[in-house]
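Hello forum,

I keep getting stuck at the same step: I have a sequence, I want structure tokens, and every attempt I make locally crashes halfway through. Rather than fight my setup again tonight, could one of you with a working pipeline run this one for me? It's a single chain of 213 residues.
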Amino acid sequence: MIKKIIRAILFWARPEKFGQDGVHHTSTVHETKLEQPIRINKESYFYNCQIGSHTYFAGFNTVMNATVGRFCSIAQNVSIGPGMHPAHTFVSTSPYFWSPAKQCGATLVDKHLFNETGTVKIGHDVWIGQNVVIMDNITIGNGAIIAAGAIVTKDVLPYSIVGGVPAKLIRMRFEKEQIAFLEEIKWWNKDEMWLRANLKNMCDIKQFMSHTQ
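Reply #2:
Ran it on my machine without issues. Output:
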């Protein structure tokens, strides 16, 4: 027990090492496009993704076959696009019978008999809490918030707050006309000069709508 505690302390005490691409040295990124600046923290795995600028992943994340927009905040232990198993028709859920990838060390087939991967699309300015799972073939709208511990099995509306297992709508962040304004202005596509000029207006949606240049 003491050894485990010491290892844990040493792990968290290690100096943070990020490459020029913003990826922590303990993380793995394959076939993924990163729009800078970005931050992918420790012990994360990415495959076949596209990540927008000013987005960060807090660590211990698994993200596959996903497009993630700009200015997204993604907490620890979030899993996006974890893959699928057959739940109907197939006698067994085991990939031994339908996938040639040998996930369990062997297989009976030489071609895919079931589509085990889908895609996930996450909009801009999305906040995803700790321990969230977003299943395959899901779209998360701009400005949405996913509460910690949620399992997302259906599409999430822009600027909605969802939570639970499975995730359900808790409430909308803004009024309809405010959401429409944000969707139209698309501030996440503006350059840094524009963002700096309008920084003081970002703290209040009403002020933002009234005074944004």
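The CA atoms of residues 128 and 146 lie 5 Å apart. If your local run keeps crashing, start a new thread with the error log.
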